[in-house]
Amino acid sequence: MEVATIQELCTRYRRLAICELLLDANTEAFADCLYNSGRAYLALLQRIDRSALQSQYHFCTSRAQPFLDSLAADDVDTARAMAPWSASNWARGDEYEEDFRYMRFLMDVLAHGTTSSQASACLQGLRVVATGFDSARLGVCESLQATDARAFDLAMVEFLQQREECVAEERGNPSADPEFLRTEAPICIEGIALVKLARVLGMEVRIQAPGIPRWAFTRRKKAFPPPDAWREPWVSYAG
After folding, report:
1. CA–CA dist 180, 51 (Å, integer)
2. Is the pLDDT of residue 1 over 70?
3. How much is the pLDDT for 239?
4. How high is the mean pLDDT of the chain?
5. Domain for residue 134, yes or no?
6. pTM score > 0.85 for this model?
7. Is 74's pLDDT higher than 60?
8. Nearest alpha-carbon partner for 92 in 45, 116, 60, 136
9. Tally of helices (H runs) and strands (E runs) in the chain
10. Which of 36, 44, 53, 122 is the most exposed place for a label (fewest CB within 10 A)?
11. Alpha carbon distance 193, 87 (integer Å)
């Protein structure tokens, strides 16, 4: 499958997951769809030859949204497995440096720990370049490295407020993607992923806010589908 096709598939699985949550409160299907997104992206990362690529655009670490999908699905193993396969260097000209450092920090914290040299170096770089909306993400990252639950709560309030402003602006854009507005706009997969990452790091956080519904944190009752389930047509089921 072509790169763009798999990336579009990941987006479809993410939006389908949100539909399962919004329409039926089907938390199992929600997690399974996000799981499929992460597994599809990991399979893509593992078989690509970066040295043969003419452009790194599609493989920029800042565009690794399926990493967040895996975290939001509680599929920590897949999220952690993406770290060594994802670019560790900023792709100048193909992505914003602050976006790269943000996503790379989350990967490094998960893969190497909060006190690792990789995470510390990435956070220091983010401090230099973060502005605007990224200042809220910086606060989240600093609280994660410090494993400070109180600071994390405050940083997430700012993060979600700034996200709401961005979503409101997008709703007023006549060229906005209608599917995005119906799915990813009301449910913040990134926010869910951040809360779950904080918990993986041992922090006691219980954030309930618009975009982060409590149903998204329902404990799974069964195992995930097979790793290659993303290749098969999705069939919804009762939760």
Report:
1. 33
2. no
3. 62
4. 94
5. yes
6. yes
7. yes
8. 60
9. 10, 0
10. 53
11. 20
- Give long-range contacts, CB 8 A cutoff, 24+ apart: 159-164: 159/191, 159/194, 160/188, 160/191, 160/209, 160/210, 160/211, 160/212, 161/136, 162/132, 162/133, 162/136, 163/133, 163/188, 163/190, 163/191, 163/211, 164/210, 164/211
Output 169 or 49, whichever has higher pLDDT.
Answer: 169
- The pLDDT value recorded for residue 134 is 81
Provide the 3-class DSSP secondary structure of residue 209.
strand
Residue 230 lies inside a defined structural domain of this protein: no
Domains identified in the chain, total number? 1
Q: Is residue 221 included in any domain, yes or no? A: no
Nearest to 63 by CA among 25, 32, 104: 104
User: How far lies 59's CA from each of 2, 79, 186, 238, in Å?
Assistant: 13, 16, 27, 35
What's phi and psi for 209, nearest 5 deg?
-155, 165
- Owning domain of residue 130: 3-216
Cβ atoms within 10 Å, residue 232: 10
Domain-located, residue 34: yes
What's the pLDDT tens digit per position in 136-191? 999 999 999 999 999 999 999 999 999 999 999 999 999 999 999 999 999 999 99
Tell me how far apart the alpha carbons of residues 227 and 140 are, in angstroms, rounded to a whole number. 31
Six-digit token string for 49: 């030859």
The string of pLDDT tens digits covering residues 94-109 is 999 999 999 999 999 9
